[in-house]
Write a structure and sequence with these properties.
Elements: H1 5-9, E1 42-48, E2 51-61, E3 67-73, E4 76-89, E5 92-99, E6 109-117, E7 120-126, H2 138-148, E8 155-163
Antiparallel strand pairs: 1-2, 1-8, 2-3, 3-4, 4-5, 5-6, 6-7, 7-8
């Protein structure tokens, strides 16, 4: 994860881009149905499952339905900015997110998030290649995600995060 948490939040490119998809055409839900999880707000120190280089993610409530997310670190000085909103699929919570400043054609990435307690957060990335045959059909994407959310090849472990507390 040498390219910072930008790689966390955006789907990695395939070896043969013309043979696979790198994101989703539609979010998992609508902004109007989005919700803010107060325990998700704050600054998090994160490590990738394959790379111990720390990165930082700051998650803020933008408008009561959407998040503003900044990510930095991971070996680079770049700061990436995203908009996201939460959607539930079955009992699991997901963020549909896309980079700010992107045009309307930019694809969405889906991240499942789990808060084990107030100070520990885990993100898992949904692999869009597993949805290639239904990528244009949002209800089918949701249904397949509900059916296969426990498959480690569909939802891939990505980041483990710890809340950063302000020092007195």
């Amino acid at each position: 994860m040498r390219h910072g948490t930008r790689v966390l939040l955006m789907v990695a490119a395939c070896l043969f881009p013309s043979a696979c998809i790198t994101g989703f055409k539609h979010p998992l839900g609508t902004v109007e149905d989005g919700f803010i999880e107060p325990r998700l707000l704050g600054t998090w120190a994160c490590t990738d499952v394959d790379d111990p280089t720390r990165s930082q993610i700051t998650i803020m409530d933008y408008d009561g339905k959407q998040y503003y997310i900044e990510s930095s670190g991971g070996g680079t000085s770049d700061v990436s900015r995203f908009r996201a909103f939460a959607t539930r699929v079955e009992e699991l919570a997901f963020l549909s997110l896309r980079e700010l400043g992107s045009n309307g054609d930019e694809e969405w990435a889906f991240l499942e998030y789990t808060l084990s307690d107030a100070d520990h957060l885990r993100f898992r990335l949904v692999d869009p290649a597993r949805f290639e045959d239904v990528v244009d059909d949002p209800p089918s994407v949701r249904q397949r995600l509900a059916e296969q959310s426990q498959d480690p090849e569909v939802v891939v472990g990505l980041l483990s995060c710890t809340r950063r507390r302000r020092q007195p």
